[in-house]
């Protein structure tokens, strides 16, 4: 059985009463956050609530105008920003993109691409990648130097729902393999990955924090996102309640076998109200095989 990551070590990042003041106003204030090795922390909050600004204080890109921001001196950080200023009209292969701004050996680059399941795309043009492929390349770029902290600003943008679940699975696996801490930013509330240890809900300040379910239940969260927001914070759980057999049929948790799986066939629980995935699709299995081979 796999051991749970040890998240009890000393903090690798600590923000204390941190705030950023720009253009005559406080973008965020009073941010207290500690990040420990191996833990997954998700920042959620409406557009403009200060998630990226907080992440930039964690990274040291923005200096706090009040309070303090500290990082362990030897901390290697991998960062996938929300936006990249790259001229995509120029030809650029994945391989070159991986090594564009950093000294990375070909072996390190190949290993990272393999880990995120996109080794086969090394020679492809970046501008031709699909949204999901691009995010995997970005992830590979961020983990290539084996970071102790991985900061992912909206890692599932441009990715469809199935791809989103696969990416969250992958991020969880990378955390397990590298035992790195992960800071995830999401303004999209409908899925928070199950592996998230803590959710921090921002609205210019820390509005509430805790386990995903405790945040979804909190009064502050409901006030911030309204009644509509509450059922949207669906914590993605991988129930593995059925298995896809080689002949394409499906064996359910109750032992029965059917030709297909269908949400309304009575074999699945519906505890989140919204569309939620409680099983693997063949595409995910392919991704896992690909990751496993590399
Ligand atoms: N350098 C800056 N100068 C002035 N205002 C800024 C600066 N950077 C960000 N802001 C403003 O600060 C607020 C918080 O921005 P931030 O990018 O941290 O929000 P966010 O929660 O990440 O938003 P989103 O979900 O839209 O990405 C926004 O209103 C933004 O316009």
Automatic annotation (TrEMBL):
Keyword field contains Cell wall biogenesis/degradation: no
Keywords, alphabetical: ATP-binding, Cell membrane, Ion transport, Membrane, Nucleotide-binding, Translocase, Transport, Zinc, Zinc transport
Regions of compositional bias (Basic residues) in chain numbering: 273-283
Stored SUPFAM superfamilies: P-loop containing nucleoside triphosphate hydrolases
InterPro entries, alphabetized: AAA+_ATPase (IPR003593), ABC_transporter-like_ATP-bd (IPR003439), ABC_transporter-like_CS (IPR017871), Metal_Ion_Import_ABC (IPR050153), P-loop_NTPase (IPR027417)
Keyword Metal-binding: no
Biased composition annotated in UniProt, kind: Basic and acidic residues: 261-272, 284-294
Recorded superkingdom: Bacteria
Span of domain ABC transporter: 13-228
PROSITE patterns attached to this UniProt entry: ABC_TRANSPORTER_1, ABC_TRANSPORTER_2
Database matches in Pfam families: ABC_tran
GO terms, molecular function: ATP binding; ATP hydrolysis activity
Sequence segments annotated as region (Disordered): 255-294
A Gene Ontology biological process term: response to zinc ion
Protein family according to the UniProt entry: Belongs to the ABC transporter superfamily.
Protein name: ATP-binding cassette domain-containing protein
Annotated organism of origin: Pseudohoeflea suaedae
